[in-house]
Design brief:
Elements: H1 2-15, H2 27-33, H3 55-67, H4 72-83, H5 98-134, H6 141-155
Helix pairs in contact: 1-5
Length: 156
């Protein structure tokens, strides 16, 4: 059981090691990293409003910036400087934002441990109660004879 918990914890920690530090210099990749600010909750690439006041000009600006030779990181940094981190479609992997990345794994781990401890307590309590019940006092000779008589009467 401990090996399983250790494996789950290591998997969660290693997941952050394999994220790409820079995005490819394609327009779609950059648009997928930016959230549309029109209120639709989609990325700039996925925004389906035909006359969106944010996505349409942003797509044109990204295309123009790529043609001018800017890198994806420079374009994204410019939008973060203008709109803040809320423009990013996923939180950065720095500072308090790490809670967004690792918080769900920690919550699942804590919940699993809590459930296992609760089950152990419930099952352990029942096993202890069964052991106590089985070591109860034996019937006296008088009670045993009475029980045998009643059972014989039922058989008749």
């Amino acid at each position: 059981m401990r090996r399983l918990l250790l494996a789950i914890a290591c998997t969660g920690l290693l997941a952050g090691c394999f994220t790409a530090s820079s995005v490819p210099n394609t327009q779609k990749a950059i648009e997928d990293r930016l959230t549309c600010q029109c209120g639709c909750g989609l990325t700039v690439h996925s925004c389906n409003h035909l006359q969106c006041g944010f996505a349409v000009p942003t797509r044109a600006d990204i295309a123009k910036s790529l043609a001018a030779g800017q890198t994806a990181d420079e374009i994204i940094a410019r939008y973060v400087a203008k709109y803040g981190e809320k423009v990013l479609s996923s939180p950065t992997t720095r500072g308090f934002n790490l809670v967004a990345w690792y918080g769900p794994y920690v919550a699942v781990l804590i919940g699993t441990i809590g459930i296992l401890l609760l089950l152990r307590r419930w099952i352990g309590g029942k096993l202890h109660a069964d052991a106590t019940a089985s070591t109860a006092t034996a019937l006296s000779d008088e009670d045993r004879k009475k029980l045998e008589r009643e059972l014989e009467e039922l058989d008749k």
